[in-house]
Amino acid sequence: MRRVVTRAGGLMALLLALPSAAHAQQGMAAECPPFSATSNRAPFYPMEELWRLLDYTVNVIIETDACGRVHDARVERSSGVVALDAVALQAARGWVVAPQYRGQPRYRLPFVFDPLPEPVPARTGIRVQDPFFAERSTGQVPAGLGDDAAGVAGFLADPVPIGFMQISEAIAVIGPQAVFRRYGDLVNFWLRDEEGLSLFQLDGTMLVRNRLVDNGQHRFVVSSVLCGRDLEVCRHSLAQLRANRTTQQPLPVDAPTP
């Protein structure tokens, strides 16, 4: 899993300065325990949310004591994804402000969640060009799909067929070129090629392709499924997948591409 990185001048930016609080904190500095930067850990992008394929930012406001230890945290700017906000808050509550930044009661911690492993190189000329290859390669979907920028379904059916007839065929084509990651029983294949960025997820009963697309205004993910031999098990797995996926938060097409 990719570890989240934090971005903002020097990691934290001053929100509010109270001279009296700063003076009190300076007087207590000698009583504070030794500072260890290893205690400040960035949160991980939750495994079950990697299919989103987009970067999201969560700004957390932390309240600290005289020794820089966090005693309260709240989300100032939400990512729009509940799971990401939750792990950002959890991480922020364990932070300690470095001695050189102490003296103020409040700070902003911006956590940038990037789901992609590093690097995901572009691979071209490796795909079987089925009848829908050119249509998928545009990266665009019909008007009306994903128009609600406030959020769309977590599992949004891909209007273009997946491009493979069998799971074994798909793995044989994408496997040697993709960035491979295993999380327990789930196997992820990240591929960037003529069709854009895709995440193929194999759980043993089905292969799910998550494809980053846009409708001219917003970027989001559409998904397609390729079942194995046991169709009944595959149907059950798909139902679970649909139920577990929470709402997507589309991003403008002019936002940086991961």
Largest sheet: 6 strands, antiparallel
Overall pLDDT, averaged? Answer: 86
Can you write the helix and strand succession as a string?
A: EEHEEHEHHEEEEEHE
Gap between N and C termini, in Å? 15 Å
- The fraction of residues in strands falls at 25-35%
- As a percent range, the share of helical residues equals 10-25%
Q: What is the count of helical runs?
A: 5
Radius of gyration: 22 Å
Shape: elongated
Query: How are strands sequenced across the largest beta sheet?
Result: 6-7-8-9-10-11
Total strands: the figure is: 11
Unreliable residue runs = 1-27
Q: Which structural class best describes the helix and strand composition?
A: alpha+beta
What is the subunit organization of this protein?
Answer: single chain
If you had to describe this structure to a student in words, what would you say it looks like?
The protein has 258 residues and is of the alpha+beta class. 19% of the residues lie in helices and 28% in strands. It contains five helices and eleven strands; from the N terminus they run ββαββαβααβββββαβ. The strands form two sheets. A six-stranded antiparallel β-sheet has the order 6-7-8-9-10-11. Strands 1, 2, 3, 4 and 5 form a five-stranded antiparallel β-sheet that branches. A hairpin with a 3-residue loop joins strand 8 (196-202) and strand 9. The longest helix is centred in the C-terminal third of the chain and has 14 residues, at 231-244.
Offer a few descriptive terms:
28% strand, 5-stranded antiparallel sheet, 19% helix, elongated, 258 residues, disordered N terminus, alpha+beta, 11 strands, 6-stranded antiparallel sheet
